[in-house]
Specification:
The complex is a heterodimer of chains A (460) and B (205).
Chain A (H helix, E strand, L loop, with lengths): L9 H11 L1 H4 L3 H26 L16 H25 L6 H18 L2 H5 L8 H4 L6 H21 L2 H8 L7 H11 L6 H34 L11 H27 L8 H32 L2 H11 L4 H20 L6 H28 L14 H21 L8 H17 L18
Chain B lengths: L1 H19 L5 H4 L10 E8 L8 E9 L9 E9 L3 E10 L5 E6 L5 E8 L8 E8 L17 H39 L9 H4 L1
Antiparallel strand pairs in B: 1-2, 2-5, 3-4, 3-6, 6-7
The chains are: A mainly alpha (460), B alpha+beta (205).
Chain lengths: 460, 205
């Protein structure tokens, strides 16, 4: 039997357990409608990929001799970036022992895994002969960033999986006897709990392991995105060959990743009435993190453009002219407006700093950052390096279907995982509550008799 | 007899000259385009600095089939290195003078160099290229022979190129090992976990 942790009244703990299991035991009709709808989109994407395989490979895409990378590469960078943000939110908040992390770490970890699983498919989707992927393992080219990309992504995937799985052990033990769980779920939670009884020794082992993984995942995520940026910056192509690309990619990844966590947290709290635990304060703190990262990304963009433009090498000036004033200007200024200025403005003003305003800001960041990845990939390629025509690129319906299917796939994986896993890290939340109560008591102050989740005040 | 000897001597001289004229671009010679009238050969030489402060110099002489110099064309000089795979490092570019010679300064701590001189061709002449391994003669600017730098920038690069993937592979392997080890250890520790006793933290309070 799991020990009854102190610091919260049992009823509050039971309420928390029930709330964390709502998507598991009480998915609701809307869940299934969404699941079927997204499933159809994902199926359409899979069908489009099948068409690409049988109908001549990449000839069904908008790729051509000049623009030989496009939406698949942008999606790879974007999705790995989303994943990075999720993992980093969880790891950094855990390492800094931020007390508001409890309700959102599970959502952050699941979003990290889901986006990573789907994003990692895109190098394969780009291959004309995907059956040759095994050559990466048996005939690796150690001098290729693609090989190290694969190593980094697989290593990061393993770390993300461990970061998600370990905190599930005490949660599974706490929830396995929940009266609303079915037999199958009880059996699953019984296996996942690994005989957890909540002893000091077990808790210490788990804490130690989680700290190591959290420490490890930060440099790992930096490495993954830096190596991804090397796929571009280690070429001599103007617009790609830039020393700032490593940190630029990393900041962009966290920026868009935090936006995904915000959107996922808001969606789950609204759908399952979790406002009491995922409260406005938590969402606002995440929003401030996102805005700070947005400002950093804006600074990096400014620095990149200014450095290249000031020196004024012919090829780079041509590129910048196209980006800022000519062909790609509508897309670029849309990114600046919708992806940087609008989210910062929405969160800066108290009037718009509401859950709806923050959701809008996060949505804008996700869309605009995808657009930015397209702008990183396509314009430098459209300018020929060794003569020839200026290239044009428009994603084909097959590409659009595949990318849409992938986006639907991410949400599907999250929905699927939360049909089995508690949506909040209940044990961690109880622990945080207990630690705070102990800290207050040690300072000679009586802890306020609050329910779990600190603020406890339902918003909305 | 004397005439035969003279012909043989001329042939030998011609062979020696041709050997010295390194690597006339054979690929270019087979692709005569409209307006191209001549092939070009390239001879690379290296001249060590004779005074402190002066530069070591690479030179490439471009000449036509008849031996006349090719003037006022640009020649690029590249250093061939093995750094994470075979690569070229741009040394410099210069225009040939009246003697058909283009010169660039080079500073290196290496003892051997593999240099390629590249003429891209134009509407009158085919492209030409030559590659030459050069043992560096003593230079007024060369270190005294004991320094680590002199013992081979190239050698260091080669070691780096070999060691780098190994180090990266080792790092990745260590992380995997750490992850698996940590997970296994935690799982075992939890499985072995004592049943709650009076020392357990949860029951202290």
């Amino acid at each position: 039997m799991v020990e009854q942790r102190t610091g919260s009244p049992p009823t509050a703990q039971q309420e928390l357990h029930s709330a964390a299991l709502r998507p598991v035991v009480d998915a609701g009709r809307r869940f299934w409608l969404l699941f079927i709808g997204l499933g159809l989109v994902a199926l359409a994407g899979a069908g489009a990929y099948g068409l690409q395989l049988v109908a001549g490979g990449l000839s069904v895409t908008g790729y051509n001799d000049q623009v030989f990378w496009g939406s698949y590469e942008a999606t790879l960078v974007a999705f790995i970036g989303f994943s990075y943000g999720g993992a980093l939110v969880s790891a950094v908040l855990r390492l800094t022992n931020a007390p508001w992390r409890g309700p959102i770490t599970r959502i952050a970890e699941v979003s990290a895994l889901a986006t990573l699983l789907v994003g990692a498919l895109f190098p394969i989707i780009h291959l004309g002969h995907p059956e040759r992927i095994w050559l990466l393992f048996v005939q690796p080219n150690f001098q290729s960033p693609i090989f190290w990309d694969m190593v980094a992504i697989l290593t990061y995937m393993l770390a993300t999986l461990v970061l998600l799985t370990l905190p599930l052990i005490p949660d599974a033990a706490a929830l396995r006897d929940h009266p609303r769980l079915g037999r199958w779920h009880r059996r699953l939670y019984g296996v996942l709990s690994l005989g957890w009884t909540g002893t000091e020794q077990q808790r210490r082992s788990l804490e130690r392991a989680l700290t190591v993984v959290a420490i490890l995942i930060v440099p790992l995520a930096v490495v993954v995105h830096t190596v991804l940026s090397y796929t571009f910056s280690l070429t001599s192509r103007p617009g790609w060959h830039s020393t700032i690309f490593g940190p630029y990619f990393v900041i962009g990844a966290v920026y868009s990743g935090v936006a995904v966590v915000i959107l996922a947290a808001l969606a789950y709290r609204r759908a399952y009435g979790l406002q009491r635990w995922i409260d406005d304060k938590t969402i606002k703190k995440l929003a401030f993190v996102m805005v700070a990262l947005g400002a950093a990304y804006g600074y990096a963009t400014f620095s990149e453009i200014t450095t290249e433009g000031f020196v004024g090498k012919e090829a780079e000036v041509e590129l910048l002219y196209g980006l800022l004033l000519e062909r790609f200007a509508p897309l670029f200024w849309s990114f600046i407006g919708l992806g940087l200025l609008a989210p910062i403005a929405l969160i800066a003003f108290r009037r718009t700093r509401t859950p709806a305003g923050i959701a809008l800001a996060a949505g804008l960041v996700i869309v605009a950052m995808y657009l930015k990845r397209i702008l990183i990939v396509v314009p430098p390629l459209s300018r020929p390096v060794i003569g020839g025509d200026v290239g044009a690129y428009l994603p084909s319906p097959v590409e659009i279907a595949i990318v849409s299917g992938a986006a639907a796939g991410v949400v599907l994986i999250m929905l699927f995982l939360f049909r089995f896993l508690p949506v909040m890290a209940v044990d961690e939340m109880v622990e945080i509550e207990r630690e705070q109560a102990e800290a207050l008591a040690s300072r000679g102050r009586t802890p306020a008799p609050q329910p779990i989740s600190v603020s406890g005040a339902p918003d909305g | 007899m004397a005439r035969r000897l003279r012909i043989r001597g001329l042939t030998a001289l011609a062979s020696a000259t041709m050997a010295a004229l390194l690597s006339v671009s054979p690929a270019g010679a087979t692709h005569h385009g409209e307006g191209i009238i001549d092939t070009v050969s390239v001879l690379i030489t290296y001249q060590a600095a004779t005074a402190v402060g002066a530069s070591d110099q690479l030179a490439a002489r471009l000449q036509l089939d008849d031996g006349s110099p090719l003037t006022a064309v640009e020649v690029s000089f590249w250093r061939e290195v093995d750094f994470l795979g075979p690569r070229r490092i741009f040394v410099g570019a210069a225009t040939t003078d009246a003697s058909g010679t283009a010169r660039v300064a080079i500073g290196t701590a290496a003892t051997t160099l593999r240099i390629t001189a590249d003429f891209v061709g134009d509407e009158h002449y085919l492209p030409a290229q030559a590659t030459r391994d050069i043992e560096l003669p003593p230079s007024a600017n060369q270190p005294d022979g004991d320094s680590a730098a002199e013992q081979g920038g190239s050698a260091n690069l080669a070691v780096f190129a070999t060691a780098m993937p190994l180090l990266l592979a080792l790092a990745a392997f260590s992380v995997w090992l750490l992850m698996f080890g940590l997970t296994a250890r935690t799982v075992l520790a939890i499985r072995r976990g004592r049943p709650a006793t009076s020392t357990a933290k949860g029951e202290r309070s």
